Amino acid sequence: MVNKKSMMKVNLCESLRGLMLKRPFEKITIKNICDETGVIRATFYNHFEDKYDCLNAIIYEDIHEAQSHSNNDHHELIKCFINNLEENREFYKIAYRVEGQNSFKDMMIDNIAIVINDILTKRRNDYLKDEFNNLFISRYYATMIELYVHECIFSTNPINFDRLNKLLKSSFSDFIK
Question: pLDDT digit string (tens) for 52-82?
Fold first, then answer.
């Protein structure tokens, strides 16, 4: 069962997601998020440092929701993640406009890298283990996946899971059992 604190965090994230569909991220204030959720500012700060931290939590949840449905199958994980991106395409188009020190792109890479590192930690074979550590490989693949995600989000064509899966399968399979 989801506890009250976790539910509040989800509600704050969903408020930010909804607000981003209505106005630019830079014009959204903590007060706007709190008003939308029906809580006071202190509640927001109990969960997040700032709105960038809240945005990062949205990405984290979207990616980890896919991970929880994947049964440790990285191909199923990618498929769930791609489906989530497809369902939330408009949000992601808007979120990619967040640039600078706390860019959405960097948040996306960081969160994808966490999941890939987790897969490598559990299932990595010895291939090039002495030359490349898991963190390096995780960042490498996360950057590649983010590039594909960006291309798909801004393309008029539907996101092609099979194309991404084929690309990852041919390269990522060298590193995992």
Answer: 999 999 999 888 777 776 676 767 777 788 7
